[in-house]
Design brief:
- By secondary structure, the protein is mostly beta strands.
- The chain contains 1 helix and 5 strands; from the N terminus they run E-H-E-E-E-E.
- The radius of gyration is 19 Å and the shape is elongated.
Amino acid sequence: VVLADRGLVLSSELSLGTLSLGTALKHREVLSDTHLPFAFIDYGFGSSISSLPGEEDRSLAAAGIGWRFQVNEVFSGTATYGWQIHESGFEDEDDGRFQIGASVRW
């Protein structure tokens, strides 16, 4: 979490096209799925208008890979791994981070 009075966030994503296991196996009526592998790069910057003593501007850049999927319009999810490629103003020792998310509809 970054607290700042002003900032900027940029994000870019390159999709590798959708894939379907159900279509590949010719079982689309049983398994209606979509898989989307992608690569991304993110950059964020934050600063305060009236900085406190010792408070510095913060910036962070990361790049990574991910996978989004949906199965039978009921279950969907995302898995990503990002590597930190630049940081200033943080005391974070992590070089990378894995994140997952899932959603079920009924």
